[in-house]
Amino acid sequence: AQSVTQLDSHVSVSEGTPVLLRCNYSSSYSPSLFWYVQHPNKGLQLLLKYTSAATLVKGINGFEAEFKKSETFFHLTKPSAHMSDAAEYFCVVSGYSASKIIFGSGTRLSIRP
Amino acid sequence: DTEVTQTPKHLVMGMTNKKSLKCEQHMGHRAMYWYKQKAKKPPELMFVYSYEKLSINESVPSRFSPECPNSSLLNLHLHALQPEDSALYLCASSQGPSPLHFGNGTRLTVT
Fold it and tell me: Quick check: A42 and B105 CB within 8 A?
């Protein structure tokens, strides 16, 4: 069985400060892990993906995620927030089947000027 | 710009209308998906087509009828919808089960 938990429904940071969006997951086998971003009235855009081997995954727009199997988290980070980062972020766990794609509940990121 | 194109972007329909949502991708992906997303919620899977055959139907009411005419196109036919069906309908495609590539969605309002 798989599950994913986004620990914060809303995160607010000041422009230029670091961003941390937290995601815990559980899986009975080695999963694929993803972060997606959704801007208002838009579809979901793939930020980054983890499929195997690497512990630090680099994505688009300066985002990164660290994979630690022993701790089952896949937190999303960015060193310096930009106003354009304000959006909804979804952590996703994927198994071997399309029906095994599990979305987290989402985290809304707000950026203060 | 997204590589999955959805039309129309917005749709308002009455409960007795029949309308269709369209989705097109040219990435050669063999799996295509319909998701429904309510405000402030994650997407919910409705249907999956794999190699142009319906492989997953997540117990969706029959007023939603999917169709996959070819490997690049996916339609969602709508008939006799209810106001609670108002949502953002997202199409996605993938090569294998993941990652998903999403379109920008159709914002559907049922009056």
Answer: yes
pLDDT tens sequence across B54-105: 988 888 999 999 999 999 999 999 999 999 999 999 999 998 767 899 999 9
Q: Give the integer Cα–Cα distance in Å for B16 and A41.
A: 26
DSSP states along A34-101: EEEEE-TTS-EEEEEEE-SS-SEEE-GGG-EEE-BGGGTB--EEESS--GGG-EEEEEEEE-SSGGGE
Question: What size, in residues, is chain B?
Answer: 111
Residue A109: predicted pLDDT? 98
Compute the distance between CA of residue A68 and CA of residue B86 in angstroms, rounded to an integer: 39
- The answer to whether A42 contacts B104, with C-beta atoms less than 8 Å apart, is yes
> Is residue A59 less than 8 Å (CB to CB) from chain B?
no
**Token output for B3:** 């590589």
